[in-house]
Design a protein that fits this description.
alpha/beta, 23% helix, 7-stranded mixed sheet, 3 helices
Amino acid sequence: MNNICLNERNGQKNIISDIENFAFAWAGYYANKSNIFVNGVKYFVDIVFEGNIHFSDNTETGFGNWVIFKNCDNDTSIIFQKEKLSQLRNDNPLTEHLYCFSDETFGALTA
């Protein structure tokens, strides 16, 4: 079984999984126009519905629903199709939900 843990502390969420795409799938569920941690890395999440995304090299995504994770530390982005993340969540439920009292447990996969 794949371990996917939601850790919460002081209103912040950290989705932790050994399989990073599973963590991103759940982060996309919990955040929109807000910050969330994925395996300890802070991202700003934005969801684009029924649109496409244009890149600086003049390429673009196709028309659809997209979830954008912008790394808050290095200004890089990761983009997923929203429907693909939904399918990953359906197939891989959260295995643990912890309310953490320390920074150490906030950043740890305990399951």
